[in-house]
Amino acid sequence: NLLTHIAFRTTAIDFSSPSWLSHNAPLYFSILLNGGLSASVALIGYFILGNLFNLTTSLQLSELSRPAHPLLRQLLLKAPGTYHHTIVVSNLAERGAAAIGVDALLARVGAYYHDIGKTVRPYFFTENIMEGNSPHEKLDPTTSAQIIISHVTDGMDLAQKYRLPPRIRDFIWEHHGHSLVQYFYRQAQNEAEDERAVDPEDFRYPGPYPRSKETAILLLADTCEAAVRAIRPGNRDELERLVNKLIDDRVAEGALDHCDLTFKDLQTIRQVFIQVLQGVHHPRISYPQPTQRTEQKSSAPSSSAPSSSASSSSATASTSANGQQSERRRPASSPASPPKVPQMDVPQPDAAPGTSGVEIAGVEEELTVVE
C-alpha cells in the first residue's frame, strides 16, 4: 500500500518543501498500520473459521507435520519401531492420495499420528520388541487383544490432550475400522474347549470403518506395510500377489463400504503401493565371503618360492645328465631309440600350456546375505 501510494503521488509531492514529510507522515503511518492489521486479521480469521466449522487448514497441517511436534517426539523416543513404520506408511498414503487426486498433505499428516496411542505401552507391539521374549507369552489371548486394541483409544485421548484437529483424529479412530484382531482370536479359539464360546466382539477394534478416501488409503497402507515387513516377499511377483490379496481381503470384509473409493481408485492405489514397497523392502545383494584357498595363499611363508625353484633346477639337471650317459653307452650300429626318461614329477610334454599337469580342486564360494 505504501509503495503504491508513493508511486502514484510522487509527481504531486513537492520535495523542495521542508514540510513534505510532516504533511504526509499520518498517511504513511495509516498505510503501514493497515497492512499489518490486514495480515493479522486474515490469519486470526483463518484460524477461528477453521475451528468454528471443523475445517483442517493447510496451515495447521504444515504445523503438525514438523518432526519437533511433542507427539512425534514421544513416538520417536518411546516407540522407535512404530515411528519408522509410520514414516513408510505416510509415504504410501501420500503417494496413493496424490495418485487418485485427493488431499495428499492430509493423508501424510494423518498417517504421522495414526499410531500415537502405542506410546502408552510400546513394548506390547512387535515392531518395538528389541530383544527377548514377547510379553504376550505371559498373557491370555483376550488380555493381549485388549492391549492391542487399546492403542486406538489411547491415541484418541492423546489427540484430545494435544488438541489435534478433527480430521486428524479420524485417522486415529478409523485406521483399523471395526476389524478383528485375527491372531489372538484364533489363539483364543484354539485354547477354548468350545470355540463357539469365544465372543469375536471382544477381539474387534472399536472405531468405525473409514468414511473418507484419505482414511481408507491409510487403512490399506497400514495393512500392506505391516504385512510386507513381516513376510518379506522375495521378488516383485510375490509382492504383487501379497498386496493384491491384502486389498482384496479388505474389500471382501466390507472395510471400504463407507468411503467413496472406486475400483479404478483401488487399481491405481495397488500399483503405487507395489512401487513404493518394492523400493523400501527390496532384496539385499549377496556378497561372497573370502574363500579358504585365498586365505591359504595369503598365509603361506615367503621362503617356499626359492626352495621350489631350487628343486625344479636340480630335477632338470639330473634329467640332462642321465640323458647324456645313455647317449654315450648306445652302440653305433644300433638304430637310434628315444632316451629313457626317468619317472619324475615334472611337467609332461602333452600337458596344456600354462599348466603343470596337477589337478586343482575347485573351491566353492560361500554367499551370505548382507542385511
Question: Please, could you describe this protein's structure?
Answer:
With 371 residues, this protein is an all-alpha fold. Among the domains are: 31-61; 65-278, Hypothetical protein af1432, CATH 1.10.3210. It contains 14 helices and 2 strands. The protein has helices spanning 2-9, 20-52, 58-64, 70-78, 80-100, 104-113, 141-161, 166-174, 182-191, 213-231, 236-253, 263-280, 292-299, 304-329; strands spanning 286-288, 367-369. A two-stranded antiparallel sheet has the order 1-2. The longest helix has 33 residues, at 20-52. The chain starts with a helix and ends with a strand.
Number of helices: 14
CATH architecture of the domain at 65-278: Orthogonal Bundle
How many strands, which pairing sense, and closed or not: the largest β-sheet?
2 strands, antiparallel
Reading off the top of the CATH hierarchy, the class of the domain at 65-278 is best stated as Mainly Alpha
Compute the separation of the termini in Å: 61 Å
β content, as a range? under 5%
Low-confidence stretches: 302-371
- Look at the structure and give the mean pLDDT: 79
Globally, the shape reads elongated
CATH topology of the domain at 65-278: Hypothetical protein af1432
Q: Helicity, in percent?
A: 55-70%
Structural class by sheet pairing and helices:
mainly alpha
| Widest sheet: strand ordering | 1-2
Subunit arrangement of the protein: single chain
Order of helices and strands: HHHHHHHHHHHHEHHE
Count of individual beta strands: 2
**Alpha-carbon Rg, integer:** 40 Å
